[in-house]
Design goal:
It comes from Penicillium daleae. The protein is α/β, with parallel strands linked by helices and 148 residues long. Helix content is 36%, strand content 18%. It has a single domain, classed as Dehydroquinase, class II (Rossmann fold). Strands 2-1-3-4-5 form a five-stranded parallel β-sheet, with helices on both faces. Helix 4 links the parallel strand 3 and strand 4. It binds 1,3,4-trihydroxy-5-OXO-cyclohexanecarboxylic acid.
Length: 148
Amino acid sequence: KSILVINGPNLNLLGTREPAIYGYDTLDDLENKVKTVAGSLEVAVQFFQSNHEGAIIDRIHVAQKEKIEAIIINPAALTHTSVGLRDALNGVSIPFIEVHIANVHSREEFRHHSYLSDKAVSVICGMGIFGYEAALMYAAQHIGACRP
Ligand code: DQA
């Protein structure tokens, strides 16, 4: 069983980007932590990061062909802007978990609305990088990929 982890715009800058908000872990650190969790579950994990809305939408379409069973997505700024991303996720009918590193609800008003949350299986925010590990554990359970 395969799970895809997607990171949206500017998350390639993790580690140096506003560390007081997003912490000092890099995208590589994040992916390694998620891989470690995947190793303890019966799941294969793939990663994708892009700063381009269309590239993320294309990747979601490919995920359907690859029979990816769940998507963990931090849509970053696209959370608050993208009907196209919402339509892509709904269009492929792959269950997804929305993750934000920071607590979007304690930040600016424009970050309080998400175009995805009402369609997500779960929404995690404010747990830092651990949110991705928690999302993977839950996603594995959701698709029945946990060892007994
Ligand atoms: C974010 C929150 C978004 O509002 C912001 O645009 C990001 C990152 C987070 O992980 O906390 O780029 O998704």
